[in-house]
Amino acid sequence: MQIVAANLKTNHTRNTVQSYLGAVESYIDKNEIAARSVVFPPMSALCQSREKITIGAQNAYAAENGSFTGEIGTEQLEEFAIKTLLIGHSERRHIFGENLELVKRKFDFFSLLDYEIFFCVGEPIEIKEAGFEVVMTYIEKQLDGIDLGYSRLVLAYEPVWAIGTGKTATTADITEVHNAIKEIADKPLLYGGSVKVENAAEIMSLPNVDGVLVGTTSWLSERYCQLLDAANGINK
Ligand code: PEP
Question: What is the pTM of this model?
Fold first, then answer.
């Protein structure tokens, strides 16, 4: 079953997330969607998962609670029974300066607590331009020290140059990197980076692509539903 994950980033409010989830839920029911739906709303709109929609957090600090201004820990996640977490998103790494050590610390903390972890890796443009081997060395470094045997690990390959830019990686690029990552880690592997309604089915049909992690296109529930629909027809 393909995973279609929506990263709402800093968009939507508590109210609009509720209507978004309602619209997605009824679409899933009416259209017998078989893909797995996972939605990462902004922090202020965290809520319980619905029967057919897993709610995850875009970020959390590696603590139960404490003096970590601006962050949330497991105490706040547990209020909504949230056990799914995005770690290593490129915006966390590049805008907020989360380095390899902090990302690993988060992974270690939340994996010990049995959280499902969507762990993102991906290279910036200058690495991409240096060629495939350099790309894989970069990604291997991002995975260094991460327990790739962890049972609740979902990986996402998200080239930084493709995120929010409208420049989707080519199917050849995705195939090359996904094949190589699968050799390192036999885990569900999503592609993320300017996935659109028009290219979602083609990307999800590729071998070693187990779904998509989507920002911009997922922000409107109608478009997200079209992505679920694209996943529905894929049997791998
Ligand atoms: C993302 O932020 O995870 C992402 C893939 O964004 P976009 O779809 O907008 O490129």
Answer: 0.97
12 tagged catalytic: no
SS3 string of the chain? CCEEEEECCCCCCHHHHHHHHHHHHHHHHHCCCCCEEEEECCHHHCCCCECCEEECECCCCCCCCCCCCCCCCHHHHHCCCCCEEEECCHHHHHCCCCCHHHHHHHHHHHHHCCCEEEEEECCCHHHHHCCHHHHHHHHHHHHCCCCCCCCCEEEEECCHHHCCCCCCCCHHHHHHHHHHHHHHCCCCEEEECCCCHHHHHHHHHCCCCCEEEECHHHCCHHHHHHHHHHHHCCCC
Q: How many domains does the chain have?
A: 1
Nearest residue to 43 via CA among 92, 3, 90: 92
Closest C-alpha residue for ligand 1 atom 4: 215
pLDDT at 235 (0 to 100): 76
Q: What is the pLDDT of residue 159?
A: 97
Q: Mean pLDDT for each 10-residue chunk of the chain (236 residues)?
A: 97 98 97 95 98 98 98 98 98 96 98 98 97 98 98 98 92 98 97 96 97 98 97 82
Residue ranges around ligand 1 (CB below 6 Å): 7, 158, 163-164, 192-195, 213-217
Q: Distance from the CA of 52 to the center of ligand 1, in angstroms? A: 22
| CATH code of the domain in which 8 resides | 3.20.20.70
State the residue range of the domain holding 54: 3-232
